[in-house]
Amino acid sequence: MQGTAVPKRRSTTLCIATGLSLSAALLEAVALSTPCWIEADRRIYNNKFDKLGLLVFCFRSFTDPKRRYPQYFVSCRWFFDFEWKYMYDVLAPPFFRSVQIAFGIGFILLLGSLGQIVLLWLRSIPTKHETSLLFILSFTHAATAFWFFLAFTIFGARSSDPSWLPGWQNNYLSWSFGLSVVGGIQLFISSVLYFVEAKRHLERAIATTEEQLMASIVVPPTTVPLPPRKILRQSHDVQQSLV
User: Fold this and answer.
1) Would you say 190 and 178 are in contact if contact means Cβ atoms under 8 Å apart?
2) In the chain, N or C: fewer CB atoms in 10 Å?
3) How many domains does the chain have?
4) pTM score, two decimals?
């Protein structure tokens, strides 16, 4: 079976899906790298906490609430900083590590999806495999959106935990968290659009295959047998003409 003919110009559905994918990737990258998932109300001057992200913590004057270490932490620090290691039980409770893991899985899947999009737009795969790639893109985008939704749902539900950050009454979800939510919604929409485009390619492939099969069928000429009476009459006429 020959490959399905695909139009040279990409459809509007595919263009919108790709645009949403790229926009979501940018939003999630910014959300991951910025320390503004939670911020403290800046009108409260004695708040020890400033802001945090998934990878960066910022404090104004923070000490170990369990009073094990007298050191004060000021300004922003990388989450995996060596000086944080004995504070992980305070700064990163189990739910926060679950958020980091879920977001990390989603981000890895998102990077893989971007590679698939590059293959699709550069036509680096045989045309007959583009339908399968579109279905894979739809699935990976749905899986990516699921992990991101899981991450920011857990984070949003536990962000005001009194046992976690100091001054929790004056803390609020900030714009980095919002970017992550918007990116997850865009990924879900693009997943639906990739599925619609894949179904369209599949229907086109089926129609093309049916046309090729119909064109390849050669109907042999058939002779319709004459009824017996007609045959006898014709033979009688032949005999009369001979006489």
Assistant:
1) no
2) C
3) 1
4) 0.78
